[in-house]
Specification:
It contains eight helices and seven strands, in the order βαβαβαβαβαβαααβ. It has about 260 residues and is α/β, with parallel strands linked by helices.
């Protein structure tokens, strides 16, 4: 299916690996011109080279720390100047440390807020005028299933991504008139380095933990990056433009609540 992404201009955060890389690869394969960001320059450069080789698309790597306001502004300005505009913003990064809520001091909370919430706020604030100038566009946030089904030990992420969900829903109401849709995806257990950290933090045999997680998922398997990237491509494409203000779990049936 042609999603109408050819020559669309996209920014994908945290794209040197994992879900971010998979999203960038999907959009590039569908014909988009993709700017990718990450904190580590070496990994980012390698990802850009691989993406170009695999998709033949125009890839613009921009080293940036999403926790820094000036870096967020620089990314948006750089992409707009290099590509002539912006159509798609995918906010994605890693996650704060795991641990009990009472163990984190104010500094840890401040870092989590900067990384998860203020990153989204700043990138959206800078990008919305660019999307309006193009006659519309899409903003898509990547969080995690823990944001809507809290997990002990993930409190920094749960609290700050909860703020992202509320922010995104409100923003969707405010920019709908501009033909801009805003959505949030909550991945479940996905094959990434983040999941490996969860295994390590559990203190048990990783193979045992994997089998346990698989039994929790009704579909009986850990998800793949492709399970996420395909939905992202639809939501940020013209074909998905009427879908806005949603929070969608991609988790193989893991979420137990009825909403």
């Amino acid at each position: 299916m042609d999603l109408g992404l050819k020559n669309k201009i996209a920014i994908v955060g945290g794209a040197s690996m994992g879900i971010g890389y998979g999203i960038a690869r999907q959009l590039a394969a569908d014909g988009a011109r993709v700017a990718i960001t990450a904190r580590r320059e070496a990994g980012l450069a390698k990802a850009a080279e691989t993406l170009r080789s695999e998709t033949g698309a125009e890839i613009l790597p921009i080293q940036a720390d999403c926790r820094r306001a000036e870096d967020c502004a620089r990314v948006v300005d750089t992409v707009a100047l290099a590509f002539g505009g912006i159509d798609i913003l995918v906010n994605n990064d890693g996650a704060p440390p795991l641990g009990s809520l009472v163990s984190f001091d104010d500094a840890a909370w401040a870092k989590a807020v900067e990384q998860n919430l203020m990153y989204v706020v700043r990138m959206a604030r800078a990008t919305v005028p660019r999307l309006q100038a193009r006659g519309g566009g899409s903003i898509l946030n990547i969080t995690a299933i823990s944001a809507i089904q809290p997990i002990a030990g993930f409190g920094l992420s749960v609290a700050t991504w909860g703020g992202v969900i509320g922010y995104a829903k409100t923003l969707s109401l405010e920019v709908a008139k501009d033909n801009i849709n805003v959505n949030t995806i909550c991945p479940g257990y996905i094959e990434t380095q983040r999941l490996e950290k969860v295994f390590a933090a559990g203190g048990e045999d990783p193979a045992v933990m994997r089998r346990q997680l698989e039994t929790e998922v009704p579909m009986g398997r850990i998800g793949t990056v492709e399970d996420i990237s395909g939905l992202v491509a639809l939501l940020v494409s013209p074909r998905g433009r009427y879908i806005t203000g949603t929070t969608i779990q991609v988790d193989g049936g893991l979420l137990r609540s009825v909403r």
